Each structure stands twice: as C-alpha cells, then as structure tokens.
Amino acid sequence: MTDIELYDYPLPKELIAQYPLPNRSDARLLVLSRETGQMEHRHVRDLPQILRPGDTLVLNNTKVIPARLVGYRQRTGGFWEGLFLEQDAQGLWRLLCRTRGKLQPGEQVVLRDREGRDEWTLELLTRLDDGSWVARPQKNAPAVEVLQRLGRVPLPPYIRKGRMTPSDLHRYQTVYAQRPGSVAAPTAGLHFTQVLLERLQQAGIEIQYVTLHVGPGTFRPIKTDQVEKHTMHAEWGEVTPQVVQALQRTRAQGGRVVAVGTTTVRVLETAARSGQLQPWKGWTRLYITPGFQFHAIDALMTNFHLPRSTLLVLVCSFAPRELVLRAYEEAIRLRYRFYSYGDAMLIL
Q1: Residue from 198, 264, 256, 207 nearest 45 by CA
Q2: pTM of the model
Q3: Terminal Cα-to-Cα distance of the chain (whole angstroms)
Q4: Alpha carbon distance 237, 284 (integer Å)
Q5: What gap in Å lies between CA 248 and CA 260, rounded to an integer?
Q6: Whether residues 200 and 98 fall in one domain
Q7: Number of structural domains, the chain?
Q8: Do 181 and 315 belong together in one domain?
C-alpha cells in the first residue's frame, strides 16, 4: 500500500491559473527525461522541434458540454445549482444538485439561462445511492440542445470558484473537440492551435484521435489514507481499429506514441490491458497506480495536477515519483502556471 501523503506538495495560491493565455501554444512546457532526469524549459509551440519525425501524437477529441445549471427551487425560492451527468433512453436526466436545505422527491426546479431568465423546469424524482438525482425535464428534448441554450461551462472550483465568463465557452474547449460528452476539458489539449497541429504534421509527426468523456470524478481528490483504497470513477471511451493500426505502425517503424493528457493515457491503456493495443469501446474504471505496466504509450504531455489526485498518481506511475515532484518544485520556483488553464510538461 502507498501512503497518499507521498503525493502532496505545497503550491502558492497565486500560481493557480485563473485565465488562459491569449495564445494557446504560448504556454510553457517543462520537458522531463525519465532516462537522465534532465529538465528543459520550452514552450508548447516548440513541439515540432522537440518531437521526432515518425512520432504519433494522440489527442482526446471529447467535447465539453455546458453542463452546469443554475436556478431556484419553486417551493422555497432558494438558489439551486446542478451538474448534468447524462440522459437516459426515456429522456430522464441524471444530475448532481446543490442547494440549502434538503431536496425532496417531487420538487420542481426552475432553470435560468445565462442572462438570468426563467427558461426550463425539472421535476426531481429520486435520489440515487451515489448522491445524484434522477429528474424529469418539462419536455422530452435532447439534453445537449437544452444545455447549449442555458448551461454554463462547468469550470473546476479552483478557477474563479467555478463561475464562467463568456470567453470560457470557447477557451475551455480544445480546437479539435468533436464528440460531446465531457463535464471537464482534457486540459493538456487546450494548448493546441490549428496552426500548431499543421506544423506538427509538416514536421512528420502523425496525429490520431481517441475519445474519453471526462466525468465529474476527475475533480475528486483521493480521501483514503492509502492510494490503492480509492475507488475510481467510470468514464466512457473509444479507440477505433484505425487508430490501433496507426499506433502499431508507428512503433513498428521506430516512432513513439505520445499521449496528450491523462485521459488519453487511460483510454489507450484500457484498450491495451491484454498487453497489446486492441480496438475498444465502453466504460473504464482503470486506475493507474505505482507498478502499473504501460503497454500503449511511450511519452506523456500533461498539465500540472492537484496534490493527492488520481491524475498526479498516474503521472508518478509513468515517471518516478521523486523525479516528477522535483520537476513540480522546479516549476513552482520558476513560477509556472498550474492546473487547467496553466502550463504543461512533456515526459519523455
């Protein structure tokens, strides 16, 4: 068993990025060698020179839905907010709720649009064992359409206490997002621009896409004393046969598979649990902890993560924990920007 205290570190609050940089690819990039322990300070825009021709960059093409809902309880008038999780085949919604007082089955919640106008009504039906609620919307409409009209970007609480500005609708989304389903962005991908992706391909670096829809559990810190006792949340993903063939070809020709973000790692390694990468689609609870055998990736680009998080544990399973935390110390010393809108590191 591994003590969670080993994955803690002090971070000055002012280093938590509250806004993205004006230009995505201007983010700083700490390049860390697992073999030598050396660190190099570059920028994301330098990736075409850092990576090698023949490498393949794998990106998560999930799309963040504006899943945060704001409204009030019709019975009491009290403020209410929720996080949409999913819609079932009958059109019922599952969501997390937060309000003062105790919600009761049968309560009506009035949702307000981004300008504060009453827009939509939900009836809360039942509270599930995991704390989420099942609710019936006033009309059986596709939830994605409703959320696009009145939902807010579900920013993590360390960014402006979760309160979005209009620019977050664009900036808390990768430029290559395709498949709606996430309640959090795959943040390492936020640094890429279309121009940078084109420059990478011109430099002989292939681009491939997988999908992992990021769930609310990504914000949940590890609260158990030991890392291995934590229960991992489930997330839906897909690795297509075409991607598998491309990555097998990359390695056969001596190239490296470079995963962009921990979500990409989780879906690729889920598809490679047999020891060999295979097409895969479904739900994964893969929890990567020290001693994990990586079969699908050779390098990892990722943001700087919260202490005591499953994301930091994953990174410290790919590279030695002492080395990763030494890189974090160096990033703090040099005033790197941390977390979702912050800078990145590339572990080779």
Answers
A1: 198
A2: 0.92
A3: 27
A4: 7
A5: 17
A6: no
A7: 2
A8: yes
Q: CA distances (Å), 291 to each of 313, 316, 317, 319, in order?
A: 11, 10, 7, 11
Identify the three-state secondary structure at position 96: strand
In angstroms, the CA 46 to CA 337 distance is 18
Give the residue among 188, 185, 182, 178 at the shortest CA–CA distance from 210: 178
pLDDT class of 144 with cuts at 50, 70, 90: confident
H or E stretch at 327: helix 321-333
Contact 304, 29 (CB under 8 A): no
Round to whole Å and give the CA distance between 179 and 59: 12
Q: Give the domain range for residue 266.
A: 4-64+169-347
Query: Quick one: 190 and 288 in the same domain?
Result: yes
User: Phi first, then psi: what are they for 83, rounded to 5°?
Assistant: -125, 115
Band (pLDDT 50/70/90 cuts) for residue 130 is confident
